[in-house]
Design a protein that fits this description.
10% strand; single chain; six-stranded mixed sheet; 573 residues; elongated; alpha/beta; four-stranded antiparallel sheet
Length: 573
Amino acid sequence: MRELAPYLKLYKKHWFSLSLGMLLAFATLVASIGLLTLSGWFIAAASVAGLTIARETFNYMLPGGGVRGFAMGRTAGRWGERVVSHDATFKLLADLRIFFFKKLTPLIPGRFSKLRDADLLNRLVADVDAMDHVYLRLISPIIVGTLGIIALTVFLCWFDMTIGLTLGGILLSLLLVWPVLFYKLGKHNGTHLTQNKAKLRIATLDWVQGHSELVLFGAEPRYRQAITDHQDKLLKNQFKNANLTGLASALLLLANGWTMVLIIWMAADGMNGQPPGPMVAMLAFATMACFELLMPIAGAFQYLGQTVESARRLNEVLTATPDIIYPESGTESCKQASIQLNNVSFQYQDSKEYALNNVSIQLQAGKKMAIVGQTGSGKSTLLQLLTRQIDVTAGELSIGEHPIQQWTEKGLRQNISVVSQRVDILNGTLKDNLHLAKPDASDRELATILHEVGLGHLSDGSGLDAWLGDGGRQLSGGEKRRIGIARAILHNSPILLLDEPTEGLDKQTEQQIMQLLEKHSVDKTVIFVTHRLIGLESMDSIGLMEQGEIVELGTHKTLIAQEGLYHRLHQRL
């Protein structure tokens, strides 16, 4: 249960609305019990009065008005309670999603980058939604039920102390036993239900996102069968849950019936020494009505297992410490956008070997350096260090003569532009995706950049308001890459990091992009990572990486003259 503690603290922000919701729920409960109790007494008293001379003096109007008042109060209270409590709960869940997202963002990239997109989406949506059970199905019913039992006991004790305490004791015992019993019965199944729901969403999203490739390679039936298997497990969990719900309702109705029999038997000889009369009907109907306050409790604790499991999944993110912690105040900019690596080494947690080993680079501001090497030589790891997605294991890395650990995240992002191998396209318009790099860019400026990177045709039709779809499904891989280049140009930072910027482009487009990058990288500090030895003659220096080390360093002419590994690779092309 301690998994729920962090979420209970969030209730402080909406304490007034949540308290008002519980107050309206209590008022509705009083009106509901009062309606049935007064109706029972009124019908019995009117029947007795009709058989005696009291029919001429019996006040039919006042009880009838009370019945109507309770009926209207019950309807209005139920509506008001739903509006207030659900509005507060929705606001609470919105705050929780924002809070969760703020905690999640610093963790990626990092160890949480291994989580599937569907798993993260399930935590952000389904697991957060499950937290509404904490208030709507746990806190509110327990508090309202306790207050209702106290109020009913006091009311009945005014007529008969023994009957009032007996009924109150039975209700209190059920309030204490029922939740624990059905929490135990539903805990194991609720945990598996939450896990299987997440697995089903992950499998379904994998199938949807990769459907074309799965069909192409004949693997689609296997993935579809995985969805069916997860769905069957989830249906079994839901079936068991439905059985527990039916069992809880049946046992509660049974307890209600036997309790009513007991109360009627106790009142059969009269109350407080008075002969039996219409008050017996009042007690019977009051007993029947009071079990309404227990109805939500069994179901609530039956779902507690799901809620606790969802809370545990959320807490894995909320309590995690980011691998990279940026200072709240530090370096925001620099006069000279230089890059220095002094004996830098890096080792991944799951690896015994170093991805980078004693790498030293001195790149002055405004100079351009190419990093070449085969796949797996450590080129992308070097860029991750420069953007501080990971931290060095040993050595020193400085940007603008300031250790990278002293840079704030905002300052580092403003001073570095990156064209990565994977360009993320948001499910929005073309303008929205370009405004990520420069929010204040005019439409004319955006259209010019698109034309320069060879994407002028995208502005046809809907223009910059053209919808790109989820992940840019309407774009080819080359078009996505050029949007990434357009963003880097718009960002216009003093340091430019290029990770295979022309990968997937034809030769003609590649030459155009290289000329464009050269045009927009004047006086910028550039690191160009590639495994294709094309256009490197214009670079101020070239570093050849092999197994995490820079084995050759120099200009194109120098490395060719050395007739080393770079020379042999160049001759093969």
